[in-house]
Amino acid sequence: MTTTQDLAKQAAGRAAAQLCRDGMRLGLGSGSTSHAFVRALAERVADGLDVVGVPTSTATRDLALSLGIRLTDLDTDPRLDLAVDGADELDPHGDMIKGGGAALLREKIIARAAERTVILTDESKLVPQLGRFPLPIEVLPFGWASTTRLVAELLRGHGYEFPDPARRLKDGELVVTDSGNHLLDIGLTAIRDAATLALELNQIPGVVENGLFIQVADAVVVGRPDGSSELRELHPQRR
Ligand SMILES: O=C(CO)[C@H](O)[C@H](O)COP(=O)(O)O
């Protein structure tokens, strides 16, 4: 069954596909909203649009290939023109929590490789303050329990209270990311000074990357169930 949220995601995906131009090297995000974009992009490719994509996950790679979108990688094309991705939460500055789909590491690398990053969302993910969505933190399997202890120590030192962090499971199985790592999901309720927290988390040995995306988005497309969408520009002086 198609929900109103699905319709909003499709509207955002269609709007983002209209931002793509011939010759562009594109970052292709992960998750259902990004996949709505990939499907809309594939329709434009079928109509003759000439682009090449770098996928942020094996799931996106498989989808793009199945729809006839040409792919490359960052070793061949280290600079991208446009990255399009989704988010789990977006605050009024465009800062985000990402990683609900376990692809945050490649998503951050690809967003940073892109001249412009456009984030697709529906109204339900726009929040006044980040933190209700549990913050994903990608950790190396080696020493994960010790890394987790250090993460918990850092967060408690900042005054956060939360249950002991556990690694993400799906269908009872430990989730392993495309880069072979594990994920912690930590519900912090309301994150204060997300920029500092993002930097400090990445100082912990064993933390590969965290799901706080600070000043990564250049623009946001908000899709609506009626099929309309709005493009909002952010951080015009950022780069
Ligand atoms: O960060 C992500 C994957 O790591 C996704 O962008 C995020 O989880 C949103 O997913 P969806 O579009 O399915 O709601």
TrEMBL record:
<feature type="active site" description="Proton acceptor">
    <location>
        <position position="107"/>
    </location>
</feature>
<feature type="binding site">
    <location>
        <begin position="98"/>
        <end position="101"/>
    </location>
    <ligand>
        <name>substrate</name>
    </ligand>
</feature>
<dbReference type="InterPro" id="IPR020672">
    <property type="entry name" value="Ribose5P_isomerase_typA_subgr"/>
</dbReference>
<protein>
    <recommendedName>
        <fullName>Ribose-5-phosphate isomerase A</fullName>
        <ecNumber>5.3.1.6</ecNumber>
    </recommendedName>
</protein>
<feature type="binding site">
    <location>
        <position position="125"/>
    </location>
    <ligand>
        <name>substrate</name>
    </ligand>
</feature>
<keyword id="KW-0413">Isomerase</keyword>
<dbReference type="Pfam" id="PF06026">
    <property type="entry name" value="Rib_5-P_isom_A"/>
</dbReference>
<dbReference type="GO" id="GO:0009052">
    <property type="term" value="P:pentose-phosphate shunt, non-oxidative branch"/>
</dbReference>
<feature type="binding site">
    <location>
        <begin position="30"/>
        <end position="33"/>
    </location>
    <ligand>
        <name>substrate</name>
    </ligand>
</feature>
<dbReference type="GO" id="GO:0006014">
    <property type="term" value="P:D-ribose metabolic process"/>
</dbReference>
<dbReference type="InterPro" id="IPR037171">
    <property type="entry name" value="NagB/RpiA_transferase-like"/>
</dbReference>
<comment type="function">
    <text>Catalyzes the reversible conversion of ribose-5-phosphate to ribulose 5-phosphate.</text>
</comment>
<comment type="subunit">
    <text>Homodimer.</text>
</comment>
<comment type="pathway">
    <text>Carbohydrate degradation; pentose phosphate pathway; D-ribose 5-phosphate from D-ribulose 5-phosphate (non-oxidative stage): step 1/1.</text>
</comment>
<dbReference type="GO" id="GO:0004751">
    <property type="term" value="F:ribose-5-phosphate isomerase activity"/>
</dbReference>
<comment type="similarity">
    <text>Belongs to the ribose 5-phosphate isomerase family.</text>
</comment>
<dbReference type="InterPro" id="IPR004788">
    <property type="entry name" value="Ribose5P_isomerase_type_A"/>
</dbReference>
<feature type="binding site">
    <location>
        <begin position="85"/>
        <end position="88"/>
    </location>
    <ligand>
        <name>substrate</name>
    </ligand>
</feature>
<dbReference type="GO" id="GO:0005829">
    <property type="term" value="C:cytosol"/>
</dbReference>
